[in-house]
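During the no-cost extension, the postdoctoral fellow (Dr. R.K.) reprocessed legacy sequence entries with the updated structure-token encoder. One reprocessed record is reproduced below for audit purposes.
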Amino acid sequence: MKFQRQLKYYYLRFIRLRGEPRELALGMALGIFSGMMPILPFQTALAVALAIFFKVSKITAALGTWVSNPFNWYFLYYYSYKLGAFILGTPEKSPVFSSVMTSIRSGEESMVILREILGAGGIFVSTFLLGGLVMGFVVATPSYLLFLYIFKHIRTWRRARKGHRNRRLQEQ
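Re-encoded structure tokens follow.
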């Protein structure tokens, strides 16, 4: 019961977000973009910084980073590296990559994983970041369009509801 109540609370908070649909959707897309980057403890900071730079919703940018969570870190890091390795032409199999993936699987702290990646050198870091950038662009673009539609729909629904409420009050 408590979970359902909390879910309803977050749903209500989401539909009550203020701002233009374009600003809210772009904030969400920037958050999703940042969430795809293999910089785990700094994803939200990057998303909010991008939102400030582009003058869009910082709240939806922070919310968008939730696309990366403990359930999918392994896949995000795995595909970031594989895609980056393909683009840069670096070896797809490496002992450091195996070590990083083992650390993620075993539930290591994000700072430990980040230190492991940074300690592997510039090419390794570049491979992860390039893969994350490409994945971020690929996922953020359609998410912007999806959330633009959602936020426009919410705005229309809220206006219709408000108009209906005002008409009822006038009839009384």
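The chain has one domain: 21-158. The two ends are 37 Å apart (CA to CA). The remaining legacy entries will be reprocessed before the final report is submitted.
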